[in-house]
Design goal:
14 strands; 6-stranded antiparallel β-sheet; nicotinate phosphoribosyltransferase; alpha/beta; 15 helices; 2 domains; 6-stranded parallel β-sheet; TIM Barrel
Length: 381
Amino acid sequence: MSALVTDYDRLAVMQICLEQQLTQPAVFELVVRELPPRRKFLVAAGLEQALQFLKSLSFSEAENAWLRHQGRFSAQLLDYAHGLRFDGDVDAMPEGTVFFAGEPIIRVTAPLPVAQLVESRLLNLVHFETAIASSAARIVLAARGRRLLDLGLRRAHGSEAALLAARAAYLAGFDGSATAEASRRFGIPALSPLFLRSDAIGVGTLSSLVEAPSTAPGRIVDTDDVLTHRAGLVDAATALRCKGIVLDGVQIDGPDPSARAWSLRARLDAAGLGDLAIRVSGDFDETHIGALAAEGAPIDEFGVCGWLPEDGDATRINASYEKRVTASDAAAGRGRALLQPCMRAGKRVGRTPTLLESRRYHAEQMAQLSETLREAVGESR
């Protein structure tokens, strides 16, 4: 990863450090200063991406040329940048750890010019995945055992954000993602059979679906207007079943998912299709999902379409990268015992857990969560 994935002022600070011979090892910790409103815990995530960034940290020839052409940097900095690698130590919480304000997620010990250079990207990676995992963990609690699917690709701030959000959500207990690359790259279950949108559903379309051969293990027929098209959907589902094509269920988008789910459930049950699941999708957070689960709405699966911070705190946490006075100062204090060695002299140490293992570890952490910490989940605004 390019060392230029940083704030420009970090380069200026690196030059000052070199000019003043401030190259001694320094200790920085990434912490969350305070919990967001309605949050009683957070979930550590993004460590693997942070370690990959540090391991590959360097300036390419083209990037070194760009630094020279800036005309702002000394020959000393340019020489230092040419051979720059991360050769420091990293200690961190295991991914999936439940933590609280003031507890360090990651501790970096490295020469001061390098330790401060990596601040921006470490915050970028760890803040984002931790925020998503923390929100997803609350959604898992609110869903009360219902399946959860990440559908966030189309509304994400770029493909990297979509992939890392899918990873963080799966770590925190989501059942899968509709993003194919997330499945390939991270081994996340791909949960997105065939969908038909409501604006394409008509007699001809449904007839074509019934007549079309299929080797797919299941299909989900998707409709925004289930109250209008439910008869056609039920007829199509019945005809497909007669052909031996087993549907997974029906998806509902749009307003008032509870009323629509109850109406569709009654129709499906009356047609002998009681085994078909009902999925609803939308910009759900734990408040909406908790309310639907609490009322017993006949919803088997929620598709979460976006992870943007539109509700003011869902994906915002107050993280900072803080310098400690000494190594002993860093070793003391709240939460330090949770840190484990991850890198020594720039090399990975210990065994790296798989994402599935981190997911299981997180589930163990959540099982130990007290009712006091769970009680705000799903509450009304």
